[in-house]
Structures are given as structure tokens and as C-alpha cells.
Amino acid sequence: MPTVPQIQMVDLVGQYKKIATEIHQAIDSVMESSAFINGPAVTRFGSELAKYTGAKFVIPCGNGTDALQIALMALGLQPGDEVIVPSFTYVATVEVIALLQLTPIFVDVNPQSFNMDVELVEKAITKQTKAIIAVHLFGQSADMEPLLNISNQHKIPVVEDNAQALGASYQFSDSSIARTGTMGAIGTTSFFPSKNLGAYGDGGALFTNDPSLAERLKMIANHGQKQKYYHDIVGVNSRLDSLHAAILSVKLNYLNDYEESRQTVADYYDSTLNDIDELTLPFRVENSTHVFHQYTLLVKNNKRDALRDFLQTKGVPSMIYYPVPQHLQKAYLGYGYKEGDFPISEQLCHEVCSIPIHTELTEEQLIHITGSIREFFGK
């Protein structure tokens, strides 16, 4: 039997080779200008990303974690203020809350979409609640309309963690459509290399439609200054390098194609694995597109780890996003949460298994991946 080409969770090399000429031209243009920090490439990419997303203002920054921290700093939160956040998320969402000496108030997630349960958000609000972080997990939007209604009613700003769903769209009940990251007070994203729009290193950005917030975000990301050497507020040093911006400008032209490729892979998985009773396939909410940063299965009957071991013998990689919910992470036990507080998040951590989904998967590889999964379950 012919050998299947090595399968990657994300094939960045294959993706790069298809656009290598454009990438090198972009890099050369920055090298020739030597404008490595806050150069024209950064300004241009910010404008292009604003046009793509529909956000009025885009502020590039050093990485997605910085973006979250800068967002909370811009809202003027004070130590002890409460920030509502899902427990089933990547650590950065919680980490920035702790770094700023704010208090994370965890909520559980919807068992189908894995995004925060909006009904639980309203129940978690207290007089100390000063922000809500909505995470658009794995590639589709959190349920923003009711969340924004809660935000408006209680005058609590929503920050969107859009690191995994850049390019997804959300439809409101009046049929209007908005991109994820542009609906709350501030949106954030990451350009970590494996993201749907990934740089060749760290990078991030913030989104807002509020001009005063935009100015504040820009200042905070640049040492709290509007004019060089005049520091009006406490800031940080978080800048998107010009080289990364130039590369991202090239890749942004392909983002829709990348997402269509991922959706095609997801459709193939759906049609090929839907008869396996011990698997739950990714749920697609009606009012959001899904850009499939991850294709995440739920494996029932405590077979998740055995499936992963079997796939490894077949040369099929897999990942667990995430093995421990944030409220049970050692770093955050001091906030008083315990096992059993958020049963859905805890159960997901025992069942989730993400399989390869990226722009370079071949039909031969997809047949091998799904065939290996079916073999494990005796199908």
C-alpha cells in the first residue's frame, strides 16, 4: 500500500510554499525601507483588516494576550473589579484578568457550541461586575445578541476574544450581520502562526468602533503616549512588527479561501463520521458561520484517550483543547472554585478531541484520518 504523506495538525510549510513568492516580495519591501517598527506595512495592514472586518478602528499589537490585557486596561478597570469569563477557554483569557489584579468570575458553557452560556452570564452579574469577555471558541461566534442586550441593560462592556474565529459572521434577529470581534466594546485577536490568519511569529490586534476607545487602545499599546516621550497614561510596549504586518497583508488576501478549505474539510468529516454513535460532531449554531479553527469531536464512554493512542499508531495527530478547565487550573484555585462547579466545562475536558483541519489536507489524507477513526470504532 502507498504511504500516506505525513499528516500535520496544521501544515504551515505547505501553506507557505503556495504563496512564497508574494511573501518574499513583502519581506523585501520592509527590508528595503528598514521601517521595522510601526512602519507603513503596519498602517496598511491595519487599514486592510478594518476593511475586511468592518471595524472602524484596528490597532495592531504584539500578540493576542497583549490585546486582551490592553482591552481591559482601556476600560479603566480597578483591582478587585469582576470580569465574567467562561471556564472552558485558553488560559490567556483568564491570565490577563489575574495580571491586572481583577477577579475572574467563571461561568459554564453551552454543551453544544462550547461558548459561554448567556443565561448564566446574567446570573453571575453583581455590583462589582465591570466587564464580560465573550470567547468565540473553535471558529464560531458566541451568542452575541442576548449578550449585548445584557451588556446594554447593565452598562457592562463586552470584550470579544476573537483569536479563534476571525472571519466568522454573526446574524442578528433583524437579519443584520456583523463579523466577530466588531460587536462588543472591544474585540481582540491573535495572529499566532497556527491561527486561521497566522503570522510567522507572534502578533495580535484590537478592534473597536468607538473613536475615544481607539485612541486609548493605541496609546496603551505604545507606552501610554500619543506624542513621543509624553506619557499621559500607563501603557505597555506591544507592537506588531512591520515584517509580520507585511506577511499578514499577503495572507489576508487568502483568508476567505483558507476558510472555505477548512469548511470543506469539516463537511467531509461530518459526512464520513456521522454514523458513529460514540462520537458527537461539532455543532453549528444557526446564527453564526463556522470558520473551523478546530474540528473538535466529543468522544463518549471514556474512549477519548484510547482513540488518540490508536490514531497515533496510524500517523494521525490529535490534540486536546483543553484538558483542564480554567477554574481548576492550579494558578487560579485561589479564587475559591472547586471541582463540580462547572460540570459542562469539566465534562468537555474529558471528552474533547481535535483532529487535523487545515488548508493543505489532501483527499488521501482525509480518507486515512477518517478511515482510522472508523477502524477504531469498528465501522
Secondary-structure blueprint:
Elements (H helix, E strand, L loop, with lengths): L11 H7 L1 H14 L6 H14 L3 E5 L2 H11 L7 E5 L4 H9 L3 E5 L10 H7 L4 E7 L8 H11 L3 E4 L7 E3 L5 E3 L6 E5 L13 E5 L2 H11 L3 E3 L2 E2 L10 H11 L2 H19 L5 E2 L14 E5 L4 H10 L29 H9 E4 L7 H14 L3
Parallel strand pairs: 2-3, 2-4, 4-5, 5-8
Antiparallel strand pairs: 1-9, 6-7, 8-9, 10-11, 12-13, 13-14
Helix pairs in contact: 2-9, 3-9, 4-5, 4-8, 10-13
Keywords:
379 residues, alpha/beta, Aspartate Aminotransferase, domain 2, Aspartate Aminotransferase, domain 1, 2 domains, 7-stranded mixed sheet, 14 strands, 15% strand
Tell me what you see in this structure.
- There is one protein chain.
- This protein is α/β, with parallel strands linked by helices.
- Helices cover 39% and strands 15% of the residues.
- The longest helix is centred in the last third of the chain and has 19 residues, at 255-273.
- It has a seven-stranded mixed beta sheet, with helices on both faces. It has a three-stranded antiparallel beta sheet with strand order 12-13-14. The chain has a two-stranded antiparallel sheet with strand order 6-7.
- Helix 5 (91-99) links the parallel strand 2 and strand 3 (103-107).
- It has helices at residues 12-18, 20-33, 40-53, 64-74, 91-99, 118-124, 144-154, 211-221, 242-252, 255-273, 304-313, 343-351, 363-376, and strands at residues 57-61, 82-86, 103-107, 129-135, 158-161, 169-171, 177-179, 186-190, 204-208, 225-227, 230-231, 279-280, 295-299, 352-355.
- It contains 13 helices and 14 strands.
- It has two domains: 13-252, Aspartate Aminotransferase, domain 2 (3-Layer(aba) Sandwich), CATH 3.40.640.10; 254-376, Alpha-Beta Complex (Aspartate Aminotransferase, domain 1).
